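Record passed on underneath.
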Amino acid sequence: MKSLAAALYSIAVTAWVGSLLAIGFIAAPLLFARIADRAVAGALAGDMFIFAAWVGLASGSYLTLYLLLVKGWRAFQSGVFWIVLLMLALAAAGHFGVQPILAQLKADALPRQVMESALRDRFATWHGVSSALYLVQTLLGIALVVLQERGRGR
């Protein structure tokens, strides 16, 4: 059973960081490069970022529990633990904090697109906050990949 838990640890790290990199740095930029209608590209990218957030919340929850169960109180002395916890907090803040604000701004702008409305500047500011949270989460994820063996060890 321990080997299954350790394998799931690696899968969770891979799924989380892989989704951050693939969606944020490959799929979303390609959508905006290939789809002329920026609103459609934005809607598709938004759906993918929601998916990435759920992958992060699930993976981060598993990794946190795994580290606490395997390392006990020593987990709090582990850099890997704090990276996972910070990444989890950033995923939660982005998904449950910033994304609802962006969705409300889009709704308030109707029948216009938000970028064609008076709410454009507020949307751009919150979108920038979301992008910064995502970038920091991704950079921490890269560090997690490099250090993941330290987390898996006993």
Summary: The CA atoms of residues 31 and 41 lie 5 Å apart. The helical segments are 2-34, 38-71, 79-109, 120-152. Residues 38-71 form the longest helix (34 residues).
